[in-house]
Amino acid sequence: MLSIQNLKVAIEGKVILKSISLEVRPGEIHAIMGPNGSGKSTLAAVLAGRSYPQILEGTVTWFGRNLLEIPPEERSREGIFLGFQYPIEIPGVSMVNFMKTAVNEHRKYKGLEPLSASDFLKLMREKKELVEIDSKLANRSVNEGFSGGEKKKNEIFQMAMLEPKLAILDETDSGLDIDALRIVANGVNKLKRPDNSVIVITHYQRLLDYIIPDFVHVLYDGRIVKSAGKELALELEEKGYEWIKKEVNNQA
Amino acid sequence: MAKEQDKILNDVASGEYKYGFYTDIETEKIPRGLSEDIIKLISSKKGEPDWLLEFRLKAFRHWQTMKMPRWANLKIPEINYQDIVYYAAPKQRKTAESIDDIDPELKKTFDKLGIPLEEQKHLTGVAVDAVMDSVSVKTTFKETLAEAGVIFCSFSEAVREYPELVKRYMGSVVPYTDNFFAALNSAVFSDGSFCYIPKGVRCPMELSTYFRINASNTGQFERTLLVADEESYVSYLEGCTAPMRDENQLHAAVVEIIAENNAEVKYSTVQNWYPGDKEGKGGIFNFVTKRGLCRGENSKISWTQVETGSAITWKYPSCILRGDNSVGEFYSVAVTNHYQQADTGTKMIHIGKNTRSTIVSKGISAGFGQNSYRGLVKVLKKAANARNFSQCDSLLLGDKCGAHTFPYIEVDNPTAIVEHEATTSKIGEDQIFYCNQRGISREDAVGLIVNGYAREVLNKLPMEFAVEAQKLLQISLEGSVG
Q: Which tens digits make up the pLDDT trace of B104-126?
């Protein structure tokens, strides 16, 4: 479904991603790990359609379509979801209103009628339980005054509402205590279906105790320097990133 | 709700000022210019009593000694007061007793504006006085209101039917000497609404006045007088629109409110006069004096305004808190897009003991718009334990617009507590992207964010108008981002 070929990306003139290639097929869970500054979040930003990364080379296709030409709101409606590392606050806009707008935009894109108010509230109730989120959240403004853990749970809640084909979770585990981490991971696992895929971007292995990846990729200095199965994550946890860095530097 | 949203989308996509049409109707106009003869002519057209003509002439003579105020943070072009038509009336049979007496063109006009004059078609629970140019066309639900003892009619009718009430209250809150535009209005005002809520009556429906400027080269100078007697309550709303024209047209109104003991008045405005085009050509000059007097103890006056229209806005709806324990409130959202300018705010004058006031002002500037908040909180010597809380927020869309705040605080009583908070913010790219990433387009994201920003004020509007105001905010900011 997602195919990245030789992607080269710069931010403000500085090359961040040097050459990335990655295939994600329906149903797969990919983990992208790497030290700080390796380009993990830049990759997420490119896939979600932020305007500041400059694409220098390479292609990204989504079900055969050139993804890079699709505006960000359409990518969302197409089923690409980004769980933000730092969810944004929107004062005065209630979660209900925000999600209703989003869900109905998605439905419109699919040629479906908008949900009635009662159906929508029912859907919200269902999904809230899934991520064990406080039911008062619905009436609060988007992310305003949320704790770090609430913000991340709220991202998974939105993911549950929008049922994406591909969820990109950008350091969703950062800043979470162990209970929140488990709730977030459980939410992701419960939402997993045979045909939808997840890219988990993380610095640490611990999230991968709960979300078991099919593939682990190590991103270092703008390239994927190693890809393997879930055992790679454990190895990284044990040895740190230093051995990878050495290995790469020796090759060069 | 979904249909509603589609409609909003369409409105945004088309993005034009929706009310810019002109009704081709035979209009009776008097010659241009301003003189004692013109004022006598207006007065005689309206068949007014001598005392009112005297009032007008005194105001006119005083006006001639005054100069247009220049202290506001506004660039106002020279206005030639001799080039304005001060009275224009759509021709129709004298008084429209039944709906069939009204010119079908007029009916169509108000239908198009969403203000049907037939009572059965109307939003239940809202009585309307419809004013076109210089005259009131029709007031709905008069009989229903009369049963409750509420008087709601055009100002001209009030002068004829209730001269004692008009005489007693007119000019008691805004005297003709008050300021340049109030003096001008007092000299040439043509119509407007009058409302009296008797003792102990809770007005059974929302009252509203809809002002429409139609004729060219004319100004609109209406007066609204609202009296809430002891223990009464009324909620009143005004709306306004005008055709798109290259010329600037002057609107200089006066609104006076009196609240007696334990009375409460809620006054809401959705101001959508033609704002001029994208290059700043045309549009209404909206120079308005609005003031409420909390005369009685425990009385309350609350102003809520959503200002999206007009090329230039100059208005400061104010409260004089004379009665002990009286309460004044001012909630405002003012939008300036393209080349619009607004200098707006309020005055809270604390005279009585334990008086309280709240000010919440939300300015939104886009394009080349300039938005100024100007407010005075004054606590007089005897106003023990006066409380004020002011919050002035500015939101900037783009980098060519401006937001300014001019708060004045004068406190003469040591027991007073006055608080002022102010913020300035920009709509962040991050906020818009966050919405995009959930499938919401840029235009809709701006609408959501702006409405969220203004929510505290929009929540104060009567339900039926809150939806309208939300749409209006979104439409008036169309094309202002990215």
A: 777 777 777 776 676 655 555 56
